[in-house]
Amino acid sequence: MGRRDYYHDPDAPPANSVVPSTTVAVRDHRRRLLLIHKIDNNYWALPGGAMNLGESIAQSAVREVREETGLIVELTGLVGIYSDPQHVMAYDDGEVRQEFSVCFHARPLGGELREDGSETKAVRWVEPDAIPKLKIHPSMRRRIDDALAARSTPQIV
């Protein structure tokens, strides 16, 4: 399903849903960051996605990383909570979702790195100094910057 992001755009359609979602900043032993290249909007991003009924937000984060990247992770902290009502995502089916995402820190425990072919077309460990060269949506870039800054107090925006 296609998606268009509107970020502080006066021409954005009004939101008609809010879905709790997650993103996860996974760092390896070399301090590289795990990024996915998304099929729906062609941006690089942290792995993550919508929370399902019957699971906690933490369970959702672990599940989404495994589905999108093949890795099993352990959550190690909170990067922040992101709920900007001026960031909406319009999907082909008519849903216009207002941003609401909890971003976690995590470390890999196992699994094999791979793209899933339906949501991710590439999965890569990225050196922090290479991140500015990638096409990343501004709201995701904020989460990545916050994760790399590793503040002791989570960001709530």
Radius of gyration: 15 Å
- Give average pLDDT, whole number: 93
- Following the backbone from N to C, one meets helices and strands in this order, namely EEEEEEHEEEEEHE
Class by alpha and beta content:
alpha/beta
- Widest sheet: strand order? 6-3-10-7-12
Oligomer: single chain
Quick one: overall form? Answer: globular
Largest sheet: 5 strands, mixed
Portion in helices = 10-25%
The poorly predicted ranges are none
For the record, give the distance between the C-alpha atoms at the N and C termini, rounded to a whole number: 28 Å
Number of strands: 12
Strand proportion, as a percent range, falls in 35-45%
DSSP helix count?
A: 2
Brief summary:
This protein is α/β, with parallel strands linked by helices and about 160 residues long.
Walkthrough of the structure:
With 157 residues, the protein is of the alpha/beta class. It is 16% helix and 41% strand. It is built from two helices and twelve strands; from the N terminus they run E-E-E-E-E-E-H-E-E-E-E-E-H-E. The chain has helices at residues 57-69, 138-149; strands at residues 3-7, 17-18, 21-26, 33-38, 44-45, 48-50, 71-82, 87-91, 96-98, 101-111, 120-126, 155-156. It has a five-stranded mixed β-sheet, sandwiched between helices. It has a four-stranded mixed β-sheet with strand order 1-8-9-2, with no helix packed on it. It has a three-stranded antiparallel β-sheet with strand order 5-4-11, with helices on one face. A hairpin with a 4-residue loop joins strand 8 and strand 9 (96-98). The protein is globular and about 45 Å long.
